[in-house]
Design a protein that fits this description.
about 190 residues, alpha/beta, 8 helices, 7 strands
């Protein structure tokens, strides 16, 4: 899956990737995205957290979700080494310490139902994260892929609402038409490749 054109990406570029479980896997999308940027010679930092949404990245709060508390933050460093930490994800900290030219956010699957129902906190947090990402950086927001779980009925509405919220700040990439349902894992959410 190639989402970006790398012909103009210089080796001096610094790329910050953040996302949810789709970005965490050591196979599939997360690994492929990291490798594509790294192969241009760019400096890449990738952070991902299972079950996360924009609010988690804005505040670093994993709140009371047992699922989030039981999964560590995954960091892929400059040498493509995977590290896990129980530190809370805070976008501001990662952006200010790394100072990227490009920010790629892969979030949306975990807010499908909330953004579809116009949850004001989710919309506020999504907008806030997009604004922060776009400040002094090129920003790309990759929306949720095709899924087959109980949220599937709300997917297209969610994609449109995420697009409307982030597009004033970030270029939105709709991954739904780029995803192949035949490559879904048995959980009907995550992809093998």
């Amino acid at each position: 899956l190639i989402l970006f054109s790398f012909s103009t990406l210089a080796a001096t570029q610094k790329v910050l990737l953040i996302g949810d479980s789709h970005s965490s896997s050591d196979t599939g999308y997360g690994s492929e995205l990291y490798d594509q940027f790294k192969n241009t010679g760019a400096s890449v930092h990738s952070y991902s957290l299972y079950g996360s949404d924009p609010g988690h990245w804005n505040t670093g709060d994993r709140h009371s979700l047992i699922y989030l508390k039981s999964h560590p933050l995954v960091f892929i460093n400059e040498n493509n080494q995977r590290e896990s930490t129980d530190n809370n994800p805070t976008f501001d900290t990662y952006k200010s310490s790394f100072q990227p030219n490009i920010v790629v956010i892969t979030l949306g699957t975990n807010i499908i139902d909330q953004i579809t129902s116009d949850n004001s906190d989710v919309i506020k947090n999504t907008k806030e994260l997009a604004e922060k990402a776009a400040k002094n950086s090129q920003c790309y927001w990759v929306g949720p892929p095709k899924i087959k779980d109980d949220r599937k009925a709300n997917l297209n509405t969610a994609i449109q609402k995420i697009y409307q919220t982030v597009s004033p700040y970030c270029k939105f990439i709709d991954s739904e038409p780029l995803s192949d349902e035949t490559k879904l894992n048995p959980d009907n959410i995550h992809y093998t490749t």
